[in-house]
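User: What would this chain look like folded?
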Amino acid sequence: MYPIEEQEVTAVYDPIDDEWTVYSSCRKYITKLLKVAGEPYWKEEEIGRTGTVRIVAGKWKLAGKQIRFGVVPASRPISEEERQARRDRLANARNLSP
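Assistant: Here's the prediction, encoded as structure tokens.
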């Protein structure tokens, strides 16, 4: 397993083939890629503490539509009245809970 400072995920898009090449050495994204795309076409493995072989890095080919980038909605300013109403609701909820 790679140290946290060396873990990375890269995604390279090829517009001619409408295809992504994704490399990951980060456990969180390796797990997600295994679920979405199956086995990688290249992988680096190691034997874990329990004796099982696990992927520590891999490369996957994904169709253009298999990757999307979400947009985080911008937060809007909250007026002082809304802020007070939220405080009151929270206080009421805390008082009602056993």
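The CA atoms of residues 72 and 78 lie 18 Å apart. If you want, I can go into more detail on any region.
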